[in-house]
Amino acid sequence: MGVDGATGNKTDDRASLAARFPRLEQTFPALTPQEIARMRRFGELRSYKDGERLFETGKPGPGMFVILSGHVAISQRDGLGHVTPVIDEGPGQFLAEIGQLSGRAALVDGHAEGDVETLLIPPEQLRALLVAEADLGERIMRALILRRVSLIQAGVGGPVLIGPSDSAGVIRLQGFLTRNGLPHHLLDPERDHDAAELIERYSPSPSDWPLVIAADGTVLRNPGETELARALGMIGPAGNKIYDVAIVGCGPAGLATAVYAASEGLSAVILDARSFGGQAGASARIENYLGFPTGISGQALAGRAFTQAQKFGADVMIPMAVKALDCARTDGAFALTLDGGETLRSRAVVVASGARYRRPDIDNLEKFDGRGVWYWASPIEARLCAEQEIVLVGGGNSAGQAAVFLSGHARKVYMVIRGGGLGASMSRYLIERIEATPNIELVFNTEVVALEGSEDGSLERVRWRSRLSGEEISADIRNLFLFAGADPATGWLDGCGVTLDRGGFVVTGAQSEQNQGRPVPPLETSVPGVFAVGDVRSGSVKRVGGAIGEGAQVVAALHGFLGDAAKPAL
Prior knowledge:
Elements: H1 10-20, H2 24-27, H3 33-39, E1 44-48, E2 53-55, E3 64-77, E4 83-89, E5 94-95, E6 109-121, H4 123-132, H5 134-154, E7 160-162, H6 168-179, E8 185-187, H7 193-202, E9 211-213, E10 219-221, H8 225-231, E11 242-248, H9 252-263, E12 268-271, H10 298-311, E13 315-317, E14 322-326, E15 334-338, E16 343-351, E17 355-357, E18 373-374, H11 379-384, E19 389-393, H12 397-407, E20 412-416, H13 428-435, E21 440-443, E22 446-453, E23 459-466, E24 472-476, E25 480-482, E26 486-488, H14 513-516, E27 530-532, H15 544-566
Parallel strand pairs: 7-8, 11-12, 11-16, 12-13, 16-27, 18-25, 19-20, 19-25, 20-21
Antiparallel strand pairs: 1-6, 2-6, 3-4, 3-5, 3-6, 7-9, 9-10, 14-15, 15-16, 17-26, 22-23, 23-24
Helix pairs in contact: 4-5, 9-10, 9-15, 12-13
């Protein structure tokens, strides 16, 4: 992507570009000859003839191209056959976006306009450049991030989703793509004639909605998230590599572990069944995290850490569920069984799988999952709540942040709390914010007991009961948000020998010493080489700052374990 336009009128082109890319100079910086000279040791010269393609939508990108001479046209192509010019690149500019740090599939096409000479820097060398050339690397990294943001905001690149905007399938896949920072475009058959024709041709039954059209024209009917991820090139085979550490869970604790481990030279892979960010990613605004006095959304904070982990070379496998952990270490490595049956091997394991929001005992709850019952409060769900009355269950920080965020969209938020107050589990600043928000009504000593809905499966009514008087109230509610406690995600550890407490959280440190007969580092479990950090760990503080601190702390323990394991036996 560059700043030369296609019309020939430089003034008009630049004004148009500035309107599309508000931070134009940072998004498309021009490199000086001296800067390009410093970059040459990281790449190799590549030449292209007029019309030849440098990279192609939906196929793994070869890395970052620095244009030495000639021009490259960037265009967006979707699976419906539409091609849209995006921008031109000229000498001194570079072609890449954040996906090239890890060799992900390209989101746009690039072809030569006339003869073109480039310096191609492959992903591994691009990461080395960003670390070795700090000032130059900062400018490049900022540009890569801004380009991805621009693609997301413009709906350029990525798959086309076709289906009603308020359908459960569309909301599910939009949420998945959004949380993974992937651009996409939605076409509603009620408003778009071409979309209606495609629905009629490929998926006449609502059970097949939504359609997903990949860039190569592949049609998926209401795919699962893993199926969609594979079609988009998000995940590949596990391979035969033995990592120094496998990190299971991509919330703040797992991300911190990946950043510090990779930056200190350990080969690291991070896995998550859904997306980066964990529960913290659901926070609309975190205002008490150190260094962000105006606050930052959980998604933005996690997105920065996710990019940082890739910058230092951590491998990413998302979405990828870990089904089991084999701690036998017959060849010196742990074996993680992945969704689909593949095996990944590592010398150490960090359990950062966090906790999942609890599913309360509510009549008909499962029936309305994704059809009015939500465990996440993002702009996608907020759009569904516009000018409606909604119910939100929970009294912790995540519940409070969600209530404040949704109050800006909904007509009224009933915040249902099982206990008699908020002080025990919520930060004071959030309590004050909630009390000052006129359309949030606190309903204490109460629990939701039943849900009712229509024949098409949409939620229509919610019934809640006072725990003091037993009185029940029923209201016309179409959206219910659940942030009611959390259960640890530790089922995949069954049979490995990792000690859990009565709540299912992972026991570490001194509590594990009795199982090993030796002093145990504070974050190591009852199985040597298996560590636990963040919300999944018994006794953790269940705060983003604490999780990140543990992620940093565990890397020293990893070095100690891996160093001891490498020593020859006496």
